[in-house]
Every structure is written in C-alpha cells, then in structure tokens.
C-alpha cells in the first residue's frame, strides 16, 4: 500500500504537468478536479502564488491566453515520491519543456523545470493534490556549478521545501492553529494507534455574532486570534489544537480517561478566555463540550458528535460552563 500511493501520486503529477504543458483547456480543466479547494501552488513567475483552487484556475486561464500559438514537448522527465505518512506523500521530479516547431526563430523557449507536490489519499481512495511547487534553475548559476551536486541533495532540498508547504496548508491562516481538515487528520491518526485514548474538547464562543455585529469583524478577528493564543499556550505539547469553524475550536488531549484532568482543563480554558474578554471589554463567554474517548476504535466523527452534543448541553445550562458527553442521556 505504501508503494501504491507513491506510484499513483507520481503518475498523477506527471499527468498534471504534461497536461499543463500541452496547453489544452479541456485537459487542464479535467485535471483541476484532483486539486484541493485550498491548494497552495507556487509557479516560476513572480505572480504565480495561488492559495486556492479558484485563484489557480484564474491564473491558468491567463497563462493559456499568453501561450496561445506556442506548443511545447516534454523531454527527459522523471518523477519519484517519498512517504510522509501512511496516506500522504511528496512527489518530486524534473522535466525539460522545449518549444516545438520553432523553425528559424532566433530565440526559443527551453525550460528545465523542477517539481515538488504534496499529495494525500482520501478515505474514498482518491488522490488529492494539496500543494505544488514549480521552479527553474537559478539563471545566474555558472556553467560547471552543479548545485545540488547529487540526486540525494536535490531530493533533500525538494523535501525541505515541501515540508514548509505542507506545514502551511495545515494551518488556519488567521489563528495559526490547525485548520479543520488537518485537525481531523491528526486526531484520526492518533486514534488509529492501538494504545491511544483521550479527551476531546469542543470550545465555542457564546454570542460571538454580536461581537461582529456590534464592533465589526476586525474586533471579532482579534478575539479569535487571542483565543487561539491562549489555547496554544495552555496545552501540553502532545495535544492537538485547531480551529474547526468560525468561532469553534477543538482540542484533543491524548492519554487515559481522567475526569479531574478534563474538568481542570475546561475550567482553565473558560477562565483564560474570560480574562481575554474582560480585557477587550466584551460581555461574551465560551462554552465547552467534552467527550472521553475510552474505547479503542472509536472514530473521530463519533467522538466529535458526542462532544458537540455536550457543547450544546453546556449552552442550554446558561453558557460559560462545560458539560460531559458521558453525563448525557443516551436519548
């Protein structure tokens, strides 16, 4: 299985790059279906920095207009992949794009291109491209200077760049916490370990909409950023913390079921967030739902549902408090 995802991902990136070089709108349009909606793509041009599929599609449309009438052929292509996790890999490679049918043109386009791409497999089995970086050798590199000097150095450089890109796409741009997608991925990965149990917290700001409506979105954004900072500062290194909705956060504390620890953590979050609200002269509060994951094999979705039910129990009790999923009636 590990070799399968590397092989399939390498073939996918090869198809994507050959389709891009072909300039055929239908081919390019079909290949866009493999990109994540929040894909990060960095091209060779100064302007080619795209942080969403929508932006990438617009950029490709302009590229096709500029390249109309120019045809390229791909030569000396190779692609390899390296596993990062069981469902994520980095594809790296090189190819030469040479202008075809140049005839007597005095100047032709001839590009040596390097590629790194982050690819993951979804639960349904399909591959999704999360990031792609295209580069060309530095034009001021003198003849006879071979950096990277070996294939190993080239692969290491590509992996380092990809690691930076991979980290970028995992984070919520406003708060710096994990985004919803990668919060789920990391917690699911921890739960898949045979020994892993823990406590799942869902934290929601009470009456957050009133902040935006009364003081504006900048004030609301400031509150979200400060809340994220508090959460990041008051959790152990082993915890997973993410922003999973507009004003909803999630925290997973791995380890054995410890009710006292869970209540201490919930009270601490409520206290620290209340301190922030007081400093900002806001009357809002926060509520917390907690689900203890004690049974091996419980899925993220099931645990999230239980913690979410506990959250709404806390809100029904008057807000600014916490509630355990284990204390709720099965009905």
Estimated helix fraction:
40-55%
Q: What is the straight-line distance between the termini?
A: 41 Å
Number of domains: 2
Number of helices: 9
Q: Average pLDDT across residues?
A: 85
Query: What is the CATH architecture assignment of the largest domain?
Result: 2-Layer Sandwich
Question: What is the level 1 CATH name of the largest domain?
Answer: Alpha Beta
**Uncertain spans:** 139-152
- Order of strands, main sheet, comes to 2-1-6-5-4-3
- Determine the strand fraction and express it as a percent band: 25-35%
Radius of gyration: 24 Å
Shape: elongated
Class inferred from helices and paired strands: alpha+beta
Major sheet, described briefly? 6 strands, mixed
Domain GGDEF: 196-327
Organism: [Clostridium] citroniae WAL-19142
Protein name: GGDEF domain-containing protein
InterPro entries: Diguanylate_Cyclase (IPR050469), GGDEF_dom (IPR000160), NTF2-like_dom_sf (IPR032710), Nucleotide_cyclase (IPR029787), Rev_trsase/Diguanyl_cyclase (IPR043128), SnoaL-like (IPR037401)
Write the layout of secondary structure elements.
Elements lengths: L1 H21 L2 H7 L3 E8 L6 E2 L2 H14 L5 E14 L2 E12 L10 E12 L5 E9 L15 H20 L9 H12 L6 E9 L1 H8 L1 H17 L6 E4 L4 E7 L4 H21 L5 E9 L6 H17 L5 E3 L7
How would you describe the overall organization of this protein?
Helix 6 crosses helix 7 and helix 7 packs antiparallel against helix 8 (259-279). It is elongated and about 75 Å long. The strands form two sheets. It has a six-stranded mixed β-sheet, with helices on both faces. The protein has a five-stranded mixed β-sheet with strand order 8-9-7-10-11, with helices on both faces. A hairpin with a 6-residue loop joins strand 1 and strand 2. It is 41% helix and 27% strand. The model is unreliable at 139-152 (pLDDT under 50). The protein has 331 residues and is α+β, with helices and mostly antiparallel strands. The chain has two domains: 1-138, Nuclear Transport Factor 2, Chain: A (Roll), CATH 3.10.450.50; 169-325, Alpha-Beta Plaits. The chain is built from nine helices and eleven strands.
């Amino acid at each position: 299985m590990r070799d399968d995802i590397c092989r399939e991902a390498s073939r996918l990136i090869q198809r994507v790059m050959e389709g891009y070089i072909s300039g055929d709108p239908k081919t390019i349009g079909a290949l866009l279906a493999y990109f994540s909606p929040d894909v990060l793509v960095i091209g060779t041009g100064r302007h080619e920095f795209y942080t969403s599929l929508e932006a990438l599609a617009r950029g490709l449309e302009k590229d096709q207009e500029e390249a109309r009438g120019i045809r390229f052929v791909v030569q000396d292509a190779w692609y390899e992949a390296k596993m990062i996790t069981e469902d994520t890999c980095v594809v790296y490679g090189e190819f030469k794009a040479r202008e075809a049918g140049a005839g007597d043109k005095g100047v032709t386009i001839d590009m040596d291109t390097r590629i790194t791409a982050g690819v993951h497999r979804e639960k349904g089995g399909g591959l999704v491209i999360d990031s792609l970086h295209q580069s060309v050798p530095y034009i001021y590199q003198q003849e006879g200077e071979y950096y990277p000097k070996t294939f190993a150095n080239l692969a290491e450089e590509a992996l380092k760049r990809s690691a930076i890109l991979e980290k970028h796409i995992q984070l919520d741009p406003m708060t710096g916490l994990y985004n919803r997608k990668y919060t789920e991925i990391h917690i699911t990965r921890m739960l898949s370990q045979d020994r892993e149990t823990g406590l799942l917290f869902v934290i929601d700001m009470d009456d957050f909409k009133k902040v935006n409506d009364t003081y504006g979105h900048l004030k609301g954004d400031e509150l979200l950023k400060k809340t994220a900072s508090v959460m990041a500062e008051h959790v152990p290194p082993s915890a997973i913390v993410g922003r999973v909705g507009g004003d909803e956060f999630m925290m997973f504390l791995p380890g054995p079921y410890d009710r006292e620890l869970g209540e201490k953590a919930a009270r601490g979050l409520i206290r620290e967030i209340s301190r922030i609200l007081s400093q900002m002269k806001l009357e809002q509060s926060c509520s917390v739902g907690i689900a203890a994951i004690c049974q091996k094999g419980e899925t993220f979705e099931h645990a999230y549902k239980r913690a979410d039910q506990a959250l709404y129990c806390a809100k029904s009790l008057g807000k600014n408090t916490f509630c355990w999923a284990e204390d709720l009636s099965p009905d």
